[in-house]
Specification:
By secondary structure, this protein is α/β, with parallel strands linked by helices. The chain is built from nine helices and 14 strands. The longest helix has 10 residues.
């Protein structure tokens, strides 16, 4: 994951995709694993012996709001995590410590995590999707690509670079690079896959990516097309349908992705939903191809 959150605010007051201010909010909870990993907060049971006068007994969780933009359709958590908080959450992502803590709060996660140990089964399909639209790239940058295990064209490109804050050791044939090193390279294809849904202010990430692009660079973006966004597309009350938040703090409609891309100075080439297999279940992602907007 790449942090690079901006200074736009601790709690979102406008849309994170189109900057619209016509937004609806509904109360929700932050899942206990996230609250524990970031802030060391645990759920707590308030009992009569606490001696409260006005607060009723019951379980207390970390509260938040679901925010729904009425202009572009984006749905997101109101809390915008800082870079430091993101580092607490994602450093050592899915390593033993991460997995054991998550298993404590979410029994069964360890078994599911086994599907993430190798190359995801759907990546070959994404590579085929890209091959139908762009030439095989010689030089690739995978922005937020973890170890590089899921980078398309991994065995075909001459050079594969990864920029990621997780600190994980990259696999053979993949080089981890810094922002300074990125500036010294020119890439045929930049990939930012399964990243923007985790990031507090995704437009700042896209602006950083645009600065690393040449006029000929193609950018491939991929985000989950969440079930609630598909099933209730166009509904004005999505905030009331999202009552909990986990790692994915941004849910994107097709329209919100278009607005996000355009606002970052990118020209949309194609946007399409793709059904994929995660190994234990199927899902849908939104695949976006774009380039730098022509002056």
């Amino acid at each position: 994951m790449n942090a690079n959150g901006g200074n736009e605010g601790r709690v979102a007051s406008s849309c994170i995709c189109c900057s619209g201010i016509k937004i609806n909010k509904s109360p929700a909870v932050l899942m206990p694993f996230i609250a524990k990993r970031i802030w060391d907060y645990d759920p707590v049971e308030i009992t009569a012996d606490w001696g409260f006068r006005d607060i009723k007994p019951g379980f207390a969780y970390s509260l938040c709001n679901s925010v729904h933009c009425q202009s572009c359709g984006a749905l997101f958590l109101d809390i915008r995590f800082t870079d430091r908080e993101l580092s607490f959450l994602y450093e050592g992502y899915r390593d033993d410590a991460y997995t054991s803590l998550r298993e404590l709060y979410e029994p069964g996660y360890t078994e599911k995590n086994k599907f993430f140990s190798g190359r995801a089964p759907y990546i070959d399909g994404i590579e085929a999707f890209l091959s139908e639209r762009i030439p095989t790239p010689n030089k690739i940058l995978d922005w937020g690509g973890d170890t590089g295990i899921n980078t398309p064209f991994l065995s075909k490109a001459k050079e594969v670079h990864v920029f990621d804050i997780s600190g994980m050791v990259t696999i053979d044939g993949v080089k981890a690079v810094s922002l300074d090193e990125i500036k010294k390279n020119q890439y045929d294809l930049i990939i930012c896959s399964q990243v923007l849904e985790h990031i507090p202010y995704p437009h700042t990430i896209l602006q950083d990516i645009v600065s690393a692009m040449s006029d000929s660079t193609i950018l491939y973006l991929e985000v989950p097309y969440e079930e609630v966004m598909r099933e209730f597309s166009g509904s004005p009350d999505l905030s009331q349908r999202k009552r909990h938040w986990h790692e994915h703090i941004n849910f994107f409609s097709l329209n919100s992705m278009c607005k996000l891309v355009e606002g970052a100075g990118l020209e949309l080439i194609e946007i399409v939903p793709n059904e994929i297999s995660l190994g234990w279940r199927t899902a849908v992602v939104t695949s976006v191809l774009c380039r730098k907007a022509r002056a």
